[in-house]
């Protein structure tokens, strides 16, 4: 298996970003008008843009102790601590409160978030923030808690309805300072400029994207992962894998995101199975925490692709675990995308441990990577088909239609039409 230090770095990569206008604005400013006079000697150079946005990152076993100081450094006196029932039952909420108090703060706790966080929960959280006279917002939880926290922060500072901000760069006012401590190793929401909220009326998950949503401080303590049940370790780990794969082949990938994406995929290959089968293994948990972080750093800047665009629709319809849906879809999306640009998938296959991946002919690379992902998913007990988790044939047409509106589709490396999504859904069914 490939280790992080032997990652292939020599693959050809001189891609000029060709983004649709709205995403282009997200990633780069419009070029300034050419100055008057003679063309500079580099006038013929192609224009390429790489942009990279990250929060302050604190990483290491025991750093949950720092959460009070982190909030205080952001000006907290009365922070809102957002968490959920599972994280409270695991004991991490109580520990976070103790650390906030030890730093001289008066936290208000709020924990009415459910997986795939709902629009009405965000409204209730915003009311708790305002009622508590809060000044900083602290999330301790998985992606659902962190996304709900971001959405609460948007509502208290911008007003309106949360879906007024669905899409890219529509949040005008800055949000309150935000600290995020992930308790799962998968979503990367603690570093990302995304928040995904379930619209209970439209029955889909809507994505908000913008630099405002990047937390001020990401605080990863791998110890928090040991209380995850096995199915959660498995599915969140496969979410991190999906982030690494989709970010690497994204139309917005750059040299700034590629190394993080490949590193994430390699770390998942090395540590995911062990972290599921031996939950107290420190090296495996630390490796998966790093995988989640690296994948987050890659996809928050490179954005994602068709697996996420489709899984958001299914997650909104059936309230199923996000990582589980991605894991089922990813091999089929890899086959679809690799058929158009196989070379880009070769380093990914090598990073995940496909034997002799760098020497595989183009027409075998996508299939080899898709199969390796399937083998890993099966080894950790993840389901393999959509029909097996409650999706019905009647659901498929609406899912295909809605996918076309998801922001993550914008950066998929291959153009996708409704028939393509239908074919991917049928293959995964
Ligand atoms: N914002 C982003 O960039 C981004 C990226 C990917 C996914 N997401 C979103 O994140 C959500 C999924 O988050 P998730 O996969 O982290 O799971 P989750 O936050 O939905 O948590 C799932 C369950 O696990 C419990 N749990 C969490 N951590 C635990 C721990 N350490 N010990 C015991 N129980 C624990 C929770 O209480 C909950 O019941 C989805 O809504 C998805 O759309 C967001
Ligand atoms: Fe994800």
Q: What key attributes describe this structure?
A:
Dehydroquinate synthase-like, alpha domain, Rossmann fold, 429 residues, binds fe (ii) ion, disordered N terminus, 9 strands, binds nicotinamide-adenine-dinucleotide, six-stranded parallel β-sheet, alpha/beta, 2 domains, three-stranded mixed β-sheet
Structural summary, described in words:
This protein has 429 residues and is of the alpha/beta class. The protein has two domains: 56-223, 3-Layer(aba) Sandwich (Rossmann fold), CATH 3.40.50; 229-428, Dehydroquinate synthase-like - alpha domain (Dehydroquinate synthase-like, alpha domain). It is 46% helix and 10% strand. The chain has 15 helices and nine strands. A six-stranded parallel β-sheet has the order 1-9-6-4-2-3, with helices on both faces. The protein has a three-stranded mixed β-sheet with strand order 5-8-7. β7 (194-199) and β8 (204-209) form a beta hairpin. It starts with 20 loop residues before the first helix and ends with a helix. The model is unreliable at 1-30 (pLDDT under 50). Bound molecules: nicotinamide-adenine-dinucleotide and fe (ii) ion. Residues 187, 239, 242-243, 308, 322, 326 line the site of fe (ii) ion (FE2).
Quick overview:
This protein has 15 helices and nine strands.
């Amino acid at each position: 298996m490939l280790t992080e230090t032997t990652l292939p770095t020599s693959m050809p990569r001189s891609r000029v970003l060709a983004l649709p206008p709205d995403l282009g604005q997200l990633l780069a400013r419009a070029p300034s008008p050419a100055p008057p006079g003679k063309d500079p000697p580099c006038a013929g150079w192609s224009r390429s843009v790489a942009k990279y946005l990250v929060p302050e990152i604190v990483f290491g076993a025991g750093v949950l102790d720092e959460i009070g100081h982190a909030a205080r450094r952001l000006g907290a006196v009365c922070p809102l601590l957002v968490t959920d029932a599972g994280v409270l039952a695991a004991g991490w909420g109580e520990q976070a409160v103790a650390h906030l108090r030890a730093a001289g703060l008066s936290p208000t706790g709020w924990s009415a978030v459910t997986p795939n966080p709902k629009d009405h929960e965000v409204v209730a959280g915003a009311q708790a923030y305002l009622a508590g006279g809060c000044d900083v917002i602290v999330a301790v939880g998985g992606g659902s808690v962190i996304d709900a926290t971001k959405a609460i922060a948007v509502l208290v500072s911008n007003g309106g309805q949360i879906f007024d901000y669905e899409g890219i760069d529509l949040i005008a006012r800055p949000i309150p300072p935000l600290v995020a401590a992930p308790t799962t190793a998968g979503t990367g929401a603690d570093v990302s400029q995304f928040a995904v909220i379930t619209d209970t009326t439209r029955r889909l998950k809507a994505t908000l994207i913008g630099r405002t949503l990047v937390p001020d401080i990401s605080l990863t303590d791998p110890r928090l992962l040991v209380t995850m049940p096995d199915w959660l370790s498995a599915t969140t780990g496969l979410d991190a894998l999906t982030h690494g794969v989709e970010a690497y082949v994204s139309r917005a990938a750059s040299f700034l995101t590629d190394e993080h994406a490949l590193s994430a995929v390699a770390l998942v290959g090395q540590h995911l199975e062990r972290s599921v089968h031996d939950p107290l293994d420190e090296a495996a948990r630390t490796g998966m925490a790093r995988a989640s972080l690296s994948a987050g750093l890659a996809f928050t800047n490179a954005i994602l692709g068709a697996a996420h665009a489709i899984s958001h629709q299914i997650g909104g319809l059936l309230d199923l675990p996000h990582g589980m849906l991605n894991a089922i879809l990813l091999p089929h999306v890899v086959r679809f995308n690799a058929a158009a640009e196989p070379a880009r998938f070769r380093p990914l296959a090598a990073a995940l441990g496909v034997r002799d991946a760098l020497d595989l002919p183009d027409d075998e690379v996508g299939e080899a990577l898709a199969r390796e992902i399937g083998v890993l998913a099966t080894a950790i007990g993840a389901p393999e088909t959509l029909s097996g988790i409650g999706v019905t044939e009647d659901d498929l047409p609406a899912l295909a239609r809605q996918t076309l509106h998801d922001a993550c589709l914008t950066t998929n490396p291959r153009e996708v039409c409704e028939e393509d999504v239908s074919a991917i859904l049928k293959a995964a069914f």
